[in-house]
Specification:
Helix content: 25-40%
Largest sheet: 5 strands, antiparallel
Strand order of the largest sheet: 1-2-3-7-4
Distance between the termini: 41 Å
Length: about 375
């Protein structure tokens, strides 16, 4: 199992959903950087379970215990390590899943690959629970980026086919990115929030689930981050984004609708604004040839419906090798996308900080 990623900022995630705890080790963080722990805690609470009627009822405060790498709120330069101790797991709810795998979950694949040895209670390391330590790392990265004038934010762009208002891809501000994270529900439109909440509640009442799309953006990035081919911004972002459980697709800028446009309509023409080269539109999403072009970085992430649902589903007994009907019990999100919004921000911030530390990124621009 590969649980480590990053080139300059190296992040390792560890733990299982129902184990003693989950955690993260981050190497390469800059010494002397002050981290606002209250701000970090508020960011983590956006992802934490049990915060509203539209998420799982599992209660976890997700307060990290820092073991190294930070002293009096200042990064020391040594590897930062943090752990979150699990407290509200109900492993008995998953006892029948040892023999009957959930459709569209990793249960059966994990059983085959790891020969039954993997701790799959609550989904084990495949669970969305492991995004909590990812959010610790990403929340710290967000603060470091902010100190350098780079801001990252995200919102629910769509749930159950219900769209939210989209950001202006050209004229995007720090306030635009900050607002969704300050709300109790991460949409731009209050009308969309009400309609989406109703759709999620219907899914919960029906013991079903719904999927969604998250739009994430970053502003303040310098032109020139990334490189062609395998070191491109889209490549490095997608690698980490697809490692977030439940992600089914990633697109940049205008995304797949670009296939229905002509080159004349999709091309981002140039203009000079206050002596700087900008583009009139931003269908590229701020990246051309794998390299940032100075425009807002914008991408979308598709999140599938929660696999664990209460409705009867066809499965099979691993021991008997006969088909059986499975009814999943326990506490599960009727829509994973709601709590995944800060997770996508976290993943984005970590990759961007890593890119900024590249030879052709932040360090080469220091004076």
């Amino acid at each position: 199992m590969t649980s480590t990623f990053g080139k300059n900022i190296v992040t390792t995630i560890f733990g299982e959903s129902h184990g003693h705890g989950i955690g993260v080790v981050i190497d390469g963080l800059p010494a002397g950087q002050r981290i606002d722990l209250e701000e970090l805690s508020a960011f983590l609470m956006r992802r934490a379970p049990g915060q509203s009627a539209y998420t799982t009822e599992r209660k976890e405060q997700d307060e990290p215990v820092f073991l190294s790498g930070i002293l009096d709120g200042v990064l020391t330069g040594s590897p930062l390590s943090a752990v979150i101790y699990n407290k509200d797991q109900r492993s008995k709810d998953y006892s029948n899943l040892r023999d009957m795998p959930r459709p569209s979950h990793a249960d059966w694949n994990a059983h085959v690959k790891y020969k039954g040895h993997m701790d799959m209670r609550g989904g084990g390391p495949f669970s969305g629970r492991i995004t909590a330590p990812l959010s610790i790392a990403g929340g710290i990265a967000k603060q470091i980026l902010k100190s350098r004038g780079i801001y990252v934010g995200a919102h629910l762009a769509e749930v159950a086919g219900i769209p939210d208002t989209c950001w202006d891809k050209v004229h995007l501000t720090e306030e635009d990115l900050r607002i969704p994270g300050q709300k109790d529900f991460p949409t731009l439109s209050e009308d969309a929030a009400a309609e989406i909440k109703s759709a999620i509640q219907r899914a919960r009442d029906e013991q079903n689930s719904v999927g969604g799309i998250i739009e994430c953006a970053a502003i303040g990035l310098p032109q020139g981050l990334g490189s062609p081919n395998y070191g491109g911004v889209e490549s490095r972002l997608s690698h980490v984004l697809f490692s977030v459980p439940a992600v089914r697709g990633v697109s940049f800028g205008t995304g797949f609708p670009a296939t229905r446009m002509t080159g004349r309509d999709h091309n981002d023409e140039y203009q000079i604004v206050d002596g700087q080269v900008r583009t009139v539109t931003n269908h590229a999403g701020g990246v051309v040839g794998g390299i940032t072009n100075g425009m807002p970085l914008i991408f979308q992430v598709a999140i599938k419906p929660t696999s664990s649902i209460g409705l009867p589903q066809q499965s099979f007994s691993i021991a008997e090798m006969v088909e059986k009907t499975l009814e999943v019990v326990g506490r599960h999100d009727p829509c994973i996308a709601v709590r995944a919004v800060p997770v996508i921000e976290a993943a984005c911030a970590l990759v961007l900080l890593d890119l900024m530390e590249d030879e052709n990124g932040f360090r080469s621009n220091q004076k």
